[in-house]
Design the sequence.
């Protein structure tokens, strides 16, 4: 009977979306990082079948921002062809990276940058600004066990700027 209880508990716990955590063992998902050059890292977020792409993308970007700051950098650039999806009022079709359609998996090389960081929507990010924006989604209330859908302002021109800084001249 105790063995059955352990199995049932294990199945129950595995029925949740992957959390924002180091993916030791890769069984339940999580993030993985590997240094591949002086300022280049492979960053991966591997999720389970209960994790939405919204959650995987949010956690992947948050990890990239954390990594840049942990390594003493100010920002990062997505080096490869990863396309980030945007939640907007109008539908947007964007190709995404998946190993399995039921398990979002984002893997890309990022180059860490020193200030000044020239923001390029969807490619180059100020790590502090992005991390501060994503923190409430990563650490705050969830929709079930996933990040709640939100407008991905970090993909729009002018992200992190005040209205005065983005006003036409």
Sequence:
């Amino acid at each position: 009977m105790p063995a059955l209880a352990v199995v049932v508990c294990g199945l129950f716990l595995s029925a949740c979306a992957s959390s924002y955590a180091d993916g030791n063992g890769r069984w339940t998902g999580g993030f993985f990082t590997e240094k591949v050059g002086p300022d280049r890292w492979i960053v991966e977020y591997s999720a389970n079948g209960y994790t939405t792409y919204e959650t995987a993308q949010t956690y992947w970007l948050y990890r990239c921002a954390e990594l840049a700051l942990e390594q003493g950098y100010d920002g990062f650039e997505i080096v490869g062809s990863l396309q980030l999806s945007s939640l907007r009022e109008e539908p947007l079709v964007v190709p995404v990276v998946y190993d399995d359609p039921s398990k979002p998996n984002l893997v890309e090389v990022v180059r860490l940058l020193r200030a000044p960081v020239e923001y390029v929507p969807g490619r180059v990010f100020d790590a502090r600004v992005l991390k501060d924006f994503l923190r409430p989604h990563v650490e705050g209330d969830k929709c079930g066990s996933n990040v709640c859908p939100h407008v991905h302002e970090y993909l729009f021109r002018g992200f992190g700027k005040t209205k005065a800084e983005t006003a036409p001249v």
